Amino acid sequence: MTELLSDSDLIERIFGHIDNNTTDLGDRVWREPAENYRSVARFEAEIKLLRRLPVAYCPSAALPEKGSYVARVAARTPLVAVRGDDGVVRTFRNACRHRGMAVVEGEGCARSLTCPYHAWTYGLDGQLTYIPGDEGFPGLDPKEHGLIPVTTEERGGLVFVTQKDPVSQGALADLPELIAPEQVVFDKSEMVDEANWKLIGETSMEGYHIRSLHNESFYPYGLDNINVVETFGPNSRIVFPFRRIDKLRDIPAEKRRLQGMITDVYQLFPNTHMSVLSNHSIMIILEPVTPTQTRWEIYRLSNKFVDGAPVDLTAAKRDAGFVSDTGLIEDRQAARSIQAGLEANANSHFTFGRFEKGIVHFHATLDELLANQA
Ligand code: FES
Ligand SMILES: [Fe+2]
Asked: What global pTM score does this model have?
């Protein structure tokens, strides 16, 4: 299990940074070719890699009951994840074994999955259970026409899917418990931006832009360029302290509570970001659509209970609205602007400095894994 910093060690590290006007630093500067944000060949290699890693698909809490399902495209593959009668989550390629229509769309709960085209019906375990007019298909063995499964694993409150021949353990290496059973999904949304998926991901992996980009949104509450950055396996954790963390100085060390004093961002390699705020958490999966277009899959969850008391859902929704109406808009604008700006051909490379340690770790890992699968 990962040894991420304890709350008390994190608080001490943050106080040290505030007192000395420092931040966590990486050990190197990274130059990433700008072409990697628009090249079709690079994009195809990344899609291939996304299919060969365990990649977060949705929170377990999005599949709360037997029969709950979530259908969507992941790494350009239509999939559907379903919780079975035995409580186990299974994922299938979302293509009917008759003539290939998606058997289900969106999210919901069902006792079986019935294809809309001719009503071939599948059990929650993917077995083909019913063919209307089956005399029209002499010799067809239903056992050989179940939905095609893909490897699925629930870990740390998330559902991970590996589509084929894994090249590495990916995000599952040392994954901490990220979502507790009492947390509930209170909002699910999607949006599409004209930006490469990595440009969007990079916006949540460093705190060097808080004062500048988020001057009137996050900066009044948060510190600029004071972060704790830890890496674990291919993943990273970036802690963004709020100004109010200073209040903890007056509280005895053993009574200090970190919740509400930071935004805790877990970057799960390669395309998932789990941000834990005061009252709610946001799980974002960045689905690459084309080299220059990305679909966001966003789940908002209530936070863990604090001292046994449920988190106030009204406060969670209010905070979630603030983030998406302010800082998130600014991050999205930055990513889209960089994408459009590639056409200026001003930069052969982008330079990530020592403050941007989480991003350097991301690119180094991505390069290594792409090289492994070549
Ligand atoms: S394509 Fe699904 S029943 Fe025909
Ligand atoms: Fe940002």
From this structure: 0.96
Mean pLDDT by 10 residues, the chain (374 residues): 86 98 98 98 98 98 98 98 98 98 98 98 98 97 98 97 93 91 93 98 98 96 97 97 96 91 97 95 98 98 80 89 92 98 97 98 98 87
Q: Domains in the chain, ordered, with CATH?
A: 7-52+172-373 (3.90.380.10), 55-165 (2.102.10.10)
How far away, in angstroms, is 81 Cα from ligand 2 center?
A: 31
Our answer on whether the CB atom of 101 is closer than 6 Å to any ligand 1 atom is yes
Buried b (16+ CB within 10 A) or exposed e, 70-90: bbbebbebbbbbbbeeeeebb
Ligand located closest to 120 CA: 1
Tokens of 91: 């994922």
- Expressed in angstroms and rounded, the spacing between residue 285 Cα and the centre of ligand 1 is 30
Task: Based on DSSP, count helices (H) and strands (E) in the chain, helices before strands.
Answer: 7, 19
Point out the ligand nearest to the CA of residue 212. 2
- Distance, CA of 137 to CA of 346 (rounded, Å): 61
Ligand 1 atom 3 nearest Cα:
118
